[in-house]
Automatic annotation (TrEMBL):
Signal peptide: none annotated. This is Histidine ammonia-lyase. GO terms for molecular function: histidine ammonia-lyase activity. Belongs to the PAL/histidase family. Keywords: Histidine metabolism, Lyase. It catalyses: L-histidine = trans-urocanate + NH4(+). It is found in: Cytoplasm. GO terms for biological process: L-histidine catabolic process to glutamate and formamide; L-histidine catabolic process to glutamate and formate. Pathway: Amino-acid degradation; L-histidine degradation into L-glutamate; N-formimidoyl-L-glutamate from L-histidine: step 1/3. Pfam families: Lyase_aromatic. It is an enzyme of class 4 (lyase). InterPro entries: Aromatic_Lyase, Fumarase/histidase_N, HutH, L-Aspartase-like, Phe/His_NH3-lyase_AS.
Length: 519
């Protein structure tokens, strides 16, 4: 989790796309937001066109009709306020565990930005309430299940819209569960009675899955560096070679992610006393196992996958997703841009990369523990093998997580289930892809933590040979939380401490204090 950024300025929300950094600042750092003057002007212009349609006797979808399979019914003006209330109340049908605050805040911000494009026809005053909720850090309670990722993230966004109406349950700035109306009253925010099309404008988008994609990209930028650090420490501790990471060898297969990962490994291993000590001609090792030798190929492929996912996320940030949409020439048109397939596919793709990174990490850990493969280290890195078990069961924990990650790598986006009386007969399941990716990222964090704590122990058991300055700095950071080699101790709290160091970037910062910024 990144540091609190609430004091780092206000994020302006207008028709132009937000940056990944701004989304993270608001979602994770609690930064405030402000609708720009351009946003207000765009919303005002589009709203005038919606009001013209609302007054027309000709039915217009989302303005004067029912929704989904009920779109054929024309709704008379006296019932239209009720139409919007009923839409939100009925669609706020989520179930299961509560979704994390950072995810809901990201979703709220991204929907606010879509409103700010002027393509949804919402009133500026309604958008201002969403702005105010973000700034008051009032977060609607959204549930795990409910979105099919087509017609947008309907149920999750409906829970947000329900709050704008002053209904439902929220968490306040202190994290307490409160009735929405009460929390808004305390914050001086007036609930809204939706006018024509406004309920639909708040819920018909892919912002939930997009928000989780952007947060995942933020996490993976850190975890990919961490994976290179862990691989470097394992190569060093297992008496591997860095010669295979040479730039001219990597250039024979010019994938950019591979080049970046290999450059990190060379930098991290520079000046290693352990490596220098087994290059005196007496080493009989011919070549390292794949989990060591091919580390940049796997971590590099994950980087390139992440780059592709980031390009999709950036295009989504440039999008205005609603149905119907208000166009610049005044037309109000139905469309299918709410289908989540582009985002769903890359969310699934990232889960595959995460599972494979973790699988390779677990294999390196296992090599440290096996006397037949660890080149002179004690069995399981135990202080007194037989009396002590060392890291035997830490590897079991890794294996259990990796097995789970392989199941999470099964794509959600191929599993369409028709809905709305077959009107919505193909859906993306992008929300489900995003939810399982979040679990996968947590799993990768834990797997890397076990490799790091194991590799640190293995390297220290090579004393008096000294590690590289960069890997030594990482070991020193770990030792701030976890003692060095010795008799068996209660291991779970030590693993959890390193999990936190991986998640908050402490270990990347330790390495970069020596190397400078890693790729």
């Amino acid at each position: 989790m990144i540091e609190d950024m609430r004091d780092n300025g206000v994020v302006s929300v207008g028709p132009e796309p937000l940056s990944f950094e701004d989304v993270v600042r608001v979602a994770r750092g609690g930064a405030a937001v402000r609708l720009s003057d351009d946003a207000v002007a765009a919303m005002t212009a589009a709203r005038s066109r919606v009001e013209e349609l609302a007054e027309s006797p000709t039915p217009a979808y989302g303005v004067s009709t029912g929704f989904g399979a009920l779109a054929s019914r024309h709704i008379e003006p006296p019932l239209r306020a009720r139409l919007q209330r009923s839409l939100i109340r009925s669609h706020a049908a989520g179930s299961g565990p509560e979704v994390e605050t950072e995810v809901v805040r990201a979703m709220m911000l991204l929907r606010l930005r879509t409103l700010a494009t002027g393509h949804t026809g919402i009133r500026p005053a309604t958008a201002r309430v969403l702005e105010a909720l973000l700034n008051a850090r009032i977060t609607p309670v959204v549930h795990e299940y409910g979105s099919l990722g087509c017609s947008g993230d309907l149920a999750p966004l409906s829970h947000v819209a329900l709050t704008i109406m002053g209904e439902g349950v929220v968490t306040d700035a202190g994290g307490a569960r409160v009735e929405a109306g009460e929390a808004m009253k305390r914050a001086g925010i007036e609930p809204v009675e939706f006018a024509a099309k406004e309920g639909l404008a708040l819920i018909n988008g892919t912002e939930g899955m997009l928000g989780m994609l952007i947060l995942a990209l933020d996490d993976l930028a850190r975890l990919l560096k961490t994976a290179d650090i862990a691989a470097a420490m394992s190569v060093e501790g297992l008496l591997g070679t860095d010669r295979v990471f040479a730039a001219d060898l990597q250039a024979l297969r010019p994938h950019p992610g591979q080049a970046a990962s290999a450059a990190n490994l060379r930098t991290l291993l520079a000046g290693s006393g352990i490596m220098a000590g087994h290059r005196d001609g007496s080493c009989t090792l011919v070549q390292d196992a794949y989990s060591l030798r091919c580390a940049p190929q796997v971590a590099g492929a994950a980087r390139d996958t992440m780059s592709h996912a980031a390009s999709v996320a950036m295009r989504e940030l440039c999008s205005a997703i609603d149905n119907p949409v208000v166009l610049e020439d005044g037309r109000v048109e139905s469309n299918g841009n709410f289908h989540g397939a582009p985002v769903a596919y890359v969310l699934d793709f990232l889960a595959i990369a995460v599972a494979d990174l973790a699988s390779m990490s677990e294999r390196r850990t296992d090599r440290f523990l096996d006397v037949a493969r660890n080149h002179g280290l004690p069995a399981f890195l135990a202080d007194d093998p037989g009396v002590d078990s060392g890291h035997m069961i830490a590897q079991y924990t890794q294996a259990a997580i990796v097995s789970e990650l392989k199941r999470l790598a099964v794509p959600a986006s191929v599993d369409s289930i028709p809905s709305s009386a077959m009107q919505e007969d193909h859906v993306s399941m992008g929300w489900s892809a995003a939810r399982k990716l979040r679990r996968a990222i947590d799993g990768l964090t834990r797997v890397l933590a076990v490799e790091l704590v194991t590799a640190a122990r293995g390297i220290e058991l090579r004393a008096p040979s000294a590690p590289a300055p960069a890997t030594g700095a990482v070991i020193a950071a770990i030792r701030q939380e976890v003692p060095g080699p010795g008799p068996d101790r209660f291991l779970a709290p030590e693993i959890e401490s390193v999990v936190r160091q991986v998640a908050d970037g402490t270990l990347v910062a330790a390495a970069e204090s020596v190397t400078g910024p890693l790729a």
